[in-house]
Every structure is written in structure tokens, then in C-alpha cells.
Amino acid sequence: MCGIIGCVGCGDGTLSTLLHGLSKLEYRGYDSAGVALVGDGSLRVAKKAGKLDALEAAVEERADLAGTVGIGHTRWSTHGPPTDDNAHPHQDCTKRVAVVHNGIIENYQSLRDELAESGHEFDSDTDTEVVPHLVEASLEAGRDPEAAFRDAVARLEGSFALACVVEGTEAVFVARNDSPLVLGIGDDATYLASDVPAFREFTDRVVYLEDGEFARLTADGWSVSDVDGTLREKTVDTVDWDPEDTGKSGYDHFMLKEIHEQPRALRQCLQGRVDELGGSVTLEELDDLDLERAHLVAAGTSYHAAVYGAQLLRDDGVPAQAFLSHEYATSPPPTEDATVIGVSQSGETADTLAATREAQRRGAETLAVTNTVGSTMARECDHVCYIRSGPEIGVAATKTFAGQQTALNLLTQHLSPGPVDRDLIAALRDLPSDVQAILDETDAEAVGETYLDSDAYFFIGRALNYPVAMEGALKMKEITYKHAEGFAAGELKHGTLALVTPDTPVIANVIGDGELARKTVGNVKEVEARDAPVVAVTDGQSDVERYANHVLEVPETHPRAAAILANIQLQLVAYHTAAKLGRSIDKPRNLAKSVTVE
Ligand code: M6R
To answer: Fewer beta carbons within 10 angstroms: which end of the chain, N or C?
Structure first.
């Protein structure tokens, strides 16, 4: 939710470095973008509503737009519609200050009223604009630029990652509270961003900022300090993935690339954690985790992974329940002895952080299951288990859902009081090649084409395939903009069946040939009798193919792994439907990859 980039020390390449960084951050928000550059004693700003190419076109016309220090922003609106005026950077009355912001300033209205009363005039509807005006007020009171920025930050309540430049000062001033920020440490330049891909091409050395920290970037280097200005020692970490990982590598969309990366992502997730010969699962990082009961908290796709994970734990005798994190944060259940597991790709989702923080406030032990090394959740929770999927740029979560499902299987085996399930271990070993087989042989494109004009899509599944059905529907609606719903198969006849017509395909996950499969085939017959087309996602063990118009096959395997495989087919159906409809697949309307406001 909003992407910030900044750099110092890039010389003539400052503007292009900022635009490059914004292109890598567009997944965080893409309704407007802007840059501010300082150099030769001047401050110059360009900003534009629309995707980044609108800003790039505007910048072409601006020969004056040069500087050696710069900040940039790509926006996901919270206050005011996407317009040129509401785009960041925001400025003060004198146009000497420029500020970019990610987060929400909760007390902005009272600050704005106060500033307006003392004569400040505002150009935008945003909460952010109070910040440059507060800086201006302190500059006028005789404070130096860094002190003026600190004064402004001291007045703010809410969540913010802020970067500020001031005319005549070749420095970027930075503050963080509840919104991610990371510094990139190059040989000659220093970078600042909401996320590492923004500068990964230039350096792999990073410093993660903590809440309450300030940073100062100048041509001489960088420093981090606390709210009182006391310098802090920071660790410089090295990121272990390639810049290539954040490009499209010849695929039409990041989403398709990331779907195809799943065999590798799952291999990485399993590597060194499964000993097939010894029949054991080792999550060394969780050796001191003592879990008797689990509450899994998450949002969106990660919530579907949490529902799946909770069932795995319950099936293995560990009391576990999944909660939507936003609900959990505001009305937590009374159980005090539960370990709270935050499931989050980004590790920055405000709703899920609120839930893990609430759990910590109540004294509960917390565990983060996340993809993002160094994320706020990874740092704040007592324990962390990384899913190791690599960077995911497409807004639609794909490989990280499979990674979460896989990691939750490992977690369950690690915690399980009973003997390790050797069949599952073997199935997990085969998972990457099973996924590859689906990618090589899928008929999902034909399914997408056939049902392109449908009124709605219904996804059904039972037990472990119920969250997969919900996830299939979420993927379909977010990238195709078509109505889709996911159900526990048994629920369909309790109301939604009234909506089933020949124009509403029902996509049914039917795995195995046991009771669950037989009951789901019964549900398939019910919709078939109403002339709804049926797409069966199946391992071929049941007779569902007799009632299906289309079959999407998954290799026969352990039911826990089959639920991971079934989802791959659903991802592909959603992708091909959206591609044929010409949708903006990697940046669906109104959405952002990382939702850092509640
Ligand atoms: O980063 P998180 O996993 O915490 O994000 C939670 C949701 O916003 C996210 O899963 C969202 O639903 C997906 N990007 C949708 O594909």
C-alpha cells in the first residue's frame, strides 16, 4: 500500500534510479506516482495521476527535472481520489519541502485545522499534506531541516513511513512507524525503499528500520537514530535472491511467471527440512516452540492457507482454529494459552500485525509464517518460519499460497505428537514434480476460454479442499472482475443453489474416492441436474468425470498434497480467463499487494 523510493549518491542517474525503483514498487499501489529531486540549490517535483507510464511521459517534458538527491512514490489511495493533486510528493506553501508517505496519519484533520488557522493553504485531500506544512512551520521558527522534520514527526499519530527532502539540503530524512522501510547500502550510493526489489539491482546489502527510528541519507553515507537523536548500531544484512527474480523473464505477466515458479519455490521451502530416509521433518528455527493450541490469524489468500493449516493441525490432534486477522484483533477469543500464528506473505499486513500484537499484549506466544525476511511480523513475533517462495510481485498471491500450505504441512509434522506421516513426506518430496506435471499438461486455458461469458463462477470443495475452493474464487474475482464464490460443497444446497444456471460453471475439487469425494460427487450431480456446466478438478479416483463437462487432472498423491495441487489448476483457470478478458492481471483495479493500513 504505497511504495516509497529514495536515493542519494546516484549523480546524473538519480531520476532514472527513482523511476526504476517505482517500477519495482508499482505492485504496492498504482493510482498515481511522483518524484522530487534536490540539486543545485533547487527542489523540483513532478507527479501525475495514473500508472507509472503517465509520470514517465510527464517527466519526458521536464528538462529541468534534475538533482542528485531524490524521493519517489507510487500511491494506493486512502484519502482522496487518484488525481494529480493527491499524488505524492506533497509540498508546503513555500514549495521548499517535499514529502512522500505510506500509511495513515490518524490525527491529520486536527493538524490540518490548526495549520489552516495559522494561514497554511492545502492543495490536496490527503492526510500526508500536513507533514510538509509542519516542516515548513518549524523551518520558519529557525530550526534546521533535520530538526524541522523531527518536530513534524513528533506531532503525528498513526502509521507512517516518511521520506522528506528540503530545498538547498542534499539529504533525505526518513522516519518509520508501523509501515515498512529498508535502506540499501551501495558502494557509492544509499537507497531507501518500502521493499528491497526497488533497489536490488544496485545492491544486496540492506538495513531494516524499526518503528520509532529515523534515518538520514547524505552523500557521506547513512545513519539511523532513535526519537531522541541517539545514534543506533544497525546490522547490515545481505539478501539472498537475484535481481532476475524480480523481472518477468519472458512471461506476459508476473502472475504467470510466479505460477510457473512454484516447483522451484516449493523445493526451496522443503530443502533441508525433510529427511525422507529418516522419516522426519526438522524446523530447527522452531525447536523451542512449545505449542499446545493454535490460533492462526491471516487475511485474504493467507486466511485460506490458515484455514487449511488449522485443519491439518486439528487432524493431527492439536486444537487449532483459523481467524480473520481483522476480526481477531478487535474481538479476540478468550483462550489465553493459544500460540498465535500470523500467516502473511508480506509480513506487513496491518490487520494481521494488529492481531499478533494483540496476542502479544495478552502474553501469548507468537509465530510468523511469512515469505519476507526482515518483515515487521518476522521481527516482532517470538518465532518465525519462512516459506522461502522468493519475491512475489503480482498482486494475486500464487506461489506464496502454495508455499504457505507446504510450510504449514511441515509445521504440523514438526509439532505432531504422533509419528511422522511417511506417506505425506513422500508426497511432499514429489510435490515440485507433481506441480510441474500440472503446468506442462493443464487444460485450464481451454476451460477459461469456454466459460468466458459466464455470469458467475462457483467453486466447491470439502475439508482441505474447502479453503482451496475459497482461494479459487478469490483468485477468479480479483483478476477477472467476475463474480465468483467459494463454498464448502455441502453448503451449496443451503441457498446458493438458487443461483446455479447454465451460465454459472461450478468448479468442483474432488480428490480421492472416499466419503468426502462421494459426497462432493453428490453435490456435482445436484448442479448438473440444474444444467450448470461442471469443471472437475480431480485425481481420477472417483467417478466425477461422468458428470463433468471439463476435467482438470492432478496427480494422485496424499490428500494434503492434493489440495496444494488442485489450487494450481484453479490459479491457471483464473489467469487464462483474465488474460482472455484483457484484464490488468498484475495490477488489478483497486487492489495493492501489501495492505499496510487497517
Ligand atoms: O501479505 P499477506 O499475505 O498478509 O496479505 C494478505 C492479503 O492481502 C493477500 O493474501 C491478498 O488476499 C492476496 N494478494 C490476494 O491474491
So the answer is: C
Ligand 1 within 6 A of 349 CB? yes
What's the CATH number of domain 247-255+263-431, 1.10.260.40, 2.170.190.11, 3.40.50.10490, 3.20.20.300?
3.40.50.10490
CB 166 within 8 A of CB 118: no
Q: Is 352 in the pocket of ligand 1 (CB under 6 A)?
A: yes
- pTM here? 0.80
- Fold (CATH) for 442-598: Rossmann fold (3.40.50)
Every domain of the chain and the residues it spans = 2-244, 247-255+263-431, 442-598
**Distance of CA 80 to CAs 3, 83, 116, 537, 592, Å?**
17, 8, 18, 43, 16
Separation between Cα atoms, residue 398 and residue 386, nearest integer Å: 16
Instruction: Write the CA distances from 108 to 84, 111, 139, 160, 476, integer angstroms.
Output: 20, 5, 20, 12, 37
Distance CA 463, CA 488 (A): 8
Q: Which residues pair with 409 in a beta bridge?
A: none
Spatial distance between the Cα atoms of 300 and 226, rounded to a whole number of angstroms: 34
pLDDT in tens, 53-111: 999 999 999 989 999 999 999 998 778 888 999 999 999 999 999 999 998 898 999 99
Give the nearest ligand 1 atom to 349 CA.
4
Q: Which residues carry out catalysis?
A: 2, 593
pLDDT band for position 1 (50/70/90)? Answer: low
Distance CA 597, CA 179 (A): 9
